[in-house]
Each structure stands twice: as structure tokens, then as C-alpha cells.
Amino acid sequence: MAVPSPDSPVRTARITRVFIYLFLLLFALFYLLPFGIMLINSVKPLSEITGGNMIALPREWTIQPWLSAWSTAQIGVQPTGLRPYFINSMMMAFPAVILSTMVGALNGYVLTKWRFRGDTIIFGLLLFSCFIPFQIVLIPMARILGILQMAGTTQGLIMVHFVYGIGFTTLYFRNYYAAFPTELVRAAQIDGAGFFQIFWRILLPSSGPIIAVSFIWQFTNIWNDFLFGASFASGGAAPMTVALNNLVNSSTGVREYNVHFAGAIMAAGPTLLVYIVAGRYFVRGLMSGSVKG
Amino acid sequence: MGFLDIDNVTKSYGAVQVLHRVDITVEEGEFLVLVGPSGCGKSTLLNMIAGLEGISSGEVRIKGRVMNGVHPSRRNIAMVFQSYALYPNMTVGKNITFGLEMHGIPKPERDKAMRNVAQLLQIEHLLDRKPGQLSGGQRQRVAMGRALVRNPDVFLFDEPLSNLDAKLRVDMRIEIKKLHQRLGTTIVYVTHDQIEAMTLSTRIAVMFDGHVQQLGTPKEIYDSPANLFVATFMGSPAMNVLPVRLEDRNGVLHALLTGADGQERALAMPHAPAACAAYKDTEVLLGIRPEAITDPEGADRNARTIQPMTNRVTVIEPAGADTFVTMVLSGRDCIARMRADASVEPGRDFDFAINMDKAVLFDPKTQTRIA
Fold this sequence. Notes:
The complex is a heterodimer. In chain A, 72% of the residues lie in helices and 0% in strands. Chain A is mainly alpha-helical. Chain A has two domains: 9-67, no CATH class; 83-287, MetI-like (MetI-like fold, Orthogonal Bundle). Chain B contains eight helices and 20 strands. Chain B is elongated, with a radius of gyration of 25 Å.
């Protein structure tokens, strides 16, 4: 009685489960394959790669390609490695992410808790900005950066990404705050808290999940952007993505594939790290809209 | 001029008027309950007193000071919300003192006020917890503590008990009443629950459709409802409303209705208001509360006019303390409230005693009470 017969629901469920896990494992390996190839080739001497041995594990392990990519590789005309450009990207991404998240949070707060005539139209327009392709804003943006004398600088890039990100961050925060109980805002008003006090003391402390979403989304997009970086920041101010492209395209004789692989992993590293560290908040933040209290 | 004056106040959203000329004066220490079904404008009125909604015309005055356009935090009011609206990121203690902090009161004073209030409401052991770790009743107490600590002129309650389960609601109702008796504060309380309105208030404003239908003490509202809406809204089970014909028999006004057997029943009304004479030989509506229809032994001994009536019983509902008896009168269901041990059986004739002192008559056209 206690032992299920071969075709009992429990047993078939277990078999199905095994198949599902096998299937998922297979796909996970498949998707990891390119990254695996990059990783093993970045710790190989160049001779092993040019010898036609791309899939195999290195016979001789070396971190020389990583050191080279970081500090000595030829980027354009200078043998600086990727390091200054990595710093450029950091200097660009963090301010742009923080600024756009802050403005998005403020917009979401106003659009949900301080409704005014025409607020839905304003929100509609902001939402529309999410769907404008990068290419369309290139020339107007170049003109504006020129007028502001920010062309070709990291500050210019910060501004481009900041402005471009407001649409997305506003969308996130508006939807999150729409489910935030308005009675809390009213209670705070009666308690005597002002516009910014309510924002700082009541709303922001409860916004952890959506701040994580906004941060991940903005950081990934801004870090990975190539078009704006290539268009508005040249030479020493270029971000990591542009520098990686220059690294791969700068030919001084042999193509050092192992160095290229190491550089590519460096360029992808921060976004990978952000997702691994904060990824679970991303899903949680997108799912949660309400504050239990 | 009262403590809180609501003087000819209206509210419109564009062309839609949601509140029509509300005129209420609340004295210091009064417990005014605004009661009515959803959408009657009671919460809007409360929000206007709080300053959370603008006033389209008229004036709200607290202690004689005009409040129109004054920021909520400068009206010296405190509000308890239906969802309690406790700040989820702050501890209970912080929740209670947040308002004081915003008003620039130094920390030692804040802490002293917090301890006093916590002691009063018996929430001292909760001060370091977050609202998420509290039960419904505890949250309710904290919300009241947050209101009390400000020592406001007027307390505003917006359906504070409707998120609690039935038993807790009764407990908290008594707590609120005790608190009011002890502190003698002025309270405006919004609810859709007529029992809360009856038990808590010193005066009730029954609202419907943006109008105050009647303003009076619970007894006035219950015994002398101004119109059919008030009569049927207040009281559970609702007042029976029966179409009757008024007739003069030997100089005494009688209400004529038909029993379950199709025969006429005549109920004498010697103490009917004088205005009823004008309705002689016409159809009016007779309002009679279930507890005014009893068995002859259960009838009120102090009543001036008890009328006997025999009628067929349709359904009986024993409810523990009382037994509710349904019969058909003038083609409508009529509910009587009996003692639990009254020997009533469905399908049989039963001798009822009707306390005609408690009967009220309504004009069928205007639906107002004939008085």
C-alpha cells in the first residue's frame, strides 16, 4: 500500500522532474559555453590559440594576457591597457545611475502622490522617451553637448545617460509608488512633514527593491552602451566598451586573441557582478509593488 | 459658535457636487459620528476638516479660527486612518513621535510624551517593534497613540475599526469609548457601521447622497427618524416599513393593513402626531421597529398604546438572545423581535402585541416623517 505502483502520480512526477532538470542543465551549459571559451583562452599563451587549440584547456596556465589587457595593451595609439578606460566607465556609470535613479524616484513620487492637471500626459511623454531609439537623438544631443561645451568629455556622457535614463526610472518608480498607500502620505502631512521630508523619511526607506531594479537596469545599460560612448567621447575620455573595440582593432602585427578575451571579460565583469550580487532583488522588485504595513 | 463649526460647507469636483451645504456645530468634548453608506460624502467631509481636501464653499472653523486653506499640520488636529497608515520603516516609538519631531519639539519632551501615551494605551512593550510585526489590534492602538501624542483640539477617525475582525472590533469600540470618557476630547468619527454610530456617539449625522439627512442624538435618530432613509439605515434588523391606510374610527386614528390571511387589521394610534389628521383616508407608510412587535408577555409595560394583532408566522430565526419572527403584513415581510423563549411556531397563527408608541408614519411622496 505504501509503495507507489510504477505508474502512480508520484513516480511519474519524479521522472518528469529528472528530465526537466537534465534539460535545464544542458541549456545552462550551452549558454555558458561562449563564456567558458573566453575564460580558458584568456589564460592561455597565444601560441596555443594560434596552434588551433581553442576548445581545450590550456597546457600552460598564464595570467599574462590579463595583465597585458589591463595595463600595457595598445589602445588606439597609446599602450595604456584598459585601466584608464575602465575608470572612465566607472566615473560615467555611477553618477549617471545615481542621478537618473534619484530624479526617477522624485518623478514617481510627484506623479503618484502630488497629482496635478496633465500629470498623465507628462507621464505618457516620459514613457514615450523609453521607446526613442538611440540613433534619433544622436545629432540633437551632439548639438546640445556642443552648446554646453561638454562634447568629448565624461561629464557629457554622464548627462546623456542621465537624461536618457529618466524615462525608464520614472516608469519604475511611478508604478512602485502607485501601489504605495496614499494614506501614509496624508498621515505624514498631518504630522507636519513637508514635500521632501515625506520623500526622504517615508517613501525612500521603503523603496529598496525598486531602487535595486533601477540601479541594475541603469548600470547595465549605461556600462554596456557603445553608441553614445563612441559618438560623444573620444580619445582619453572613451568608456570601456569603446576602448575594448579599439583594443581588438589596434593591430601591431599579431592579433593577441588571449588579450582580447581577457579584455572582453573585464568589460563584461561589472555588469555580471551587479547581476549576481543584486539579481534576486531585480525579480523581487519587479514583482513587488505594495508595502505591507 | 461651537468648538468645531462646519458652516454651509460644499464640495464639488468640476460640475459634480458631492457635498451639499453641510451645517454642523460640534461642542467641545462631543463625539460626533458621520454615518452613511459608501459614497455618501462622509469621508470627503472628514478630509475637508483635516485639510486633505479643499473646501469648495463655506467655512470650517476650529475654536473660531477659519481653517480654509490652512495646512493640515497647522490645524491642531490628528487623524486615525482606516489602514492605520503606520510608517512601515519606523519603529512604533518613532511612529508616535514623528509628528512631534516634525513640529520641532526637543527629544526629551518627545520621549516623555511617547511614554505617557504608550502607558495610556498599554503599548509600552511594543515601542521598539516595526508595524509589520504587530497584530491588527496593536496597530490600531499605535495609530491612536500617534494621534493622542499631539494633544490635538479635534480627533478625526476614518473608519478605524473596519479592518479588524468582529470580536476585536467590539473590544476596540469599548476602548475608544473609554478613552473619550476619560480624556473628554472632541472627536469626529466616520463609519458605515450603524452600531458603531449608535454606541459611540453623543450625536450622529446620518448622511446620504451628499446631504446630511438628520443630525441628532442616537435616541432621536433611532426613535424619531427624519425620513425613510434614516429609519431603514439605522437599526438591525431594519425598521419594518408597511403601506397602511389611515382612518378615523370614533375619533381615534387607526392604521389599516392586511394580514397574511387577506383580512384587515386595524391598529389604533391615539397618540399619533397632530399632523397625521391631514393624511386621513390616504395611504401612508407605517414604520415600526422589530422590537416594538413582541408577544403579549414581552410587551413594554410603560407603553401607552399596545395593540394586539393575530397573524400567521412565516419563518422564525432563533438568534440566541432573541428570536426573530417573520410574517407577512400588507404584502411585505415584517420582522418581530421576541424573547428567546417565546413559543412561536412557523405556519401557525400567533398573537402579537404591537407598541404603537414607537410607530412612526412617513409621507409616501416626500418620504419624510409626518410629525
